[in-house]
Design brief:
7-stranded mixed sheet, 4-stranded antiparallel sheet, mainly beta, 11 strands
């Protein structure tokens, strides 16, 4: 059974930075996709960034975070990271990590539609950005 554990959330002032981590366990094969999503009460969950971990790695970023957020993966630790810079108050949310075998349709498709294609989810980590 795949398990995901997020960490690294917290409170920061606008313009600040945080780094989230998502440790995966239970995979019996290498090469899977991991994504970061965020959700605030009353809003749909939205994809933030994603990465494919095997072979030729690909990355996905939502337009709203391009140039400010960076996703990476440490194969030895089976851990994905989301470096978030220049954070904005409207990015206050619960951030979730998700994972699954990569789809042949591509990472962008997996990251769409609120992430419903991902079966494995972490418990979430809160990010609060104050103005």
């Amino acid at each position: 059974q795949v398990q995901l554990v997020e960490s690294g959330g917290g409170s920061v002032q606008a313009g600040g930075s945080l780094r989230l981590s998502c440790a995966a366990s239970g995979y019996t094969y290498s090469g899977y996709c991991m994504g970061w999503f965020r959700q605030t009460p009353g809003k749909e969950r939205e994809g933030v960034a994603g990465i494919s971990t095997g072979g030729r790695s690909t990355q996905y970023y939502a337009d709203s975070v391009k140039g400010r957020f960076t996703i990476s993966h440490d194969n030895a630790k089976n851990t994905a990271y989301l470096q978030m810079n220049s954070l904005k108050p409207e990015e206050t949310a619960m951030y979730y990590c998700a994972s699954d075998r990569c789809s042949s349709r591509g990472l962008g498709v997996m990251m769409g539609d609120t992430g419903r294609r991902f079966p494995y989810w972490g418990q979430g980590t809160q990010v609060t950005v104050s103005s």
